[in-house]
Amino acid sequence: MNEIDYYFWMNSDWAYLGADRLEQIAAEYQLKIRYMPVDLPDVYRRTGGQLLGNRAPERQAYRIVELKRWCKKLDIHVNPTPKFMCPNADAASRIVIAADRMGLNTVSLYKAILRAEWCDDRDISDREELKRILVEEGLDADRLLVAADAPEIEAFYRHFTDTAVEAGVFGSPSYVFNNELFWGQDRLDMLEDAITSAIGGAPRRSNSRLNADVRGGR
Question: From CA 102, how far away is CA 51, in angstroms rounded?
Fold first, then answer.
C-alpha cells in the first residue's frame, strides 16, 4: 500500500503531462513509485486497443483538441504532431529500466526522453540520439547503452508489459495503487483521493476542476 505502480509508454505525451504531478503526490504522501515502462503496442494487441495512426480521423482530431486544452491548463508545452511521432520505443524503455536498476535518476531521464520527442522534434528510436540525451543528463551513456542491451533488462521490460495487462492496464499512463487502476493523467486527483482514503488526510486538490469525460491517456 506504500507504492504506486506506474505503467507508461516511452512515447506517451500524456505521461509527460502527468509526470510532475505524480511526483508531487508521491512526495506529499511519502509513497514510492515503481517505474515500469511497457510495450504499449503489445498491450494494445492483447487488450483491443489501436495505435493512434489506425484510429478514426475524428478520434485523432479530438486528441489534438484535448492535448491543446491540457497543455494550456497545465502550462506545459507539447507539440501534438512532432516530426518523429511515436517511433519504436523499445530501446528507450530498456534504457530507463536499466537506469532505474542502477539507482540513477529515472524521473529526470524518462522525462528528458519524452521531452525530446514531444517538444524538441528528436527521434527517440535512434541510438545516437538516445546517447546524446544520456550525455545531456550527465549519465555514462556508453555504460547505460550496454546495460540496456542485456537480456535481463529485456526480461524486465516484458515482465512489466505482462504485469500491466494482468493489472487491467490498456493505455498510458496508468497508475495502480492498492490494487485499484487509474488510467490517464486526468485521473491523478482520483488517485490522490484513493491514497488519502487509505492512509487518512484530506486531498490537496478538488476533483471538480476535472471533467469526468476527459480521457487524458493514450
Answer: 32
Q: What is the pTM of this model?
A: 0.92
Q: All domains of the chain, ordered by start, with CATH?
A: 3-209 (3.40.30.10)
Each residue's pLDDT tens digit in the chain (218 positions)? 589 999 999 999 999 999 999 999 999 999 999 999 999 999 999 999 999 999 999 999 999 999 999 999 999 999 999 999 999 999 999 999 999 999 999 999 999 999 999 999 999 999 999 999 999 999 999 999 999 999 999 999 999 999 999 999 999 999 999 999 999 999 999 999 999 999 876 555 544 334 333 345 56
Cα–Cα dist 129/75, whole Å:
27
**Listing from the earlier edge strand, what are the strands of the sheet with 180-183?**
32-37, 3-8, 174-177, 180-183
**Separation between Cα atoms, residue 106 and residue 117, nearest integer Å:** 17
- CA 201/CA 140 separation, integer angstroms: 42
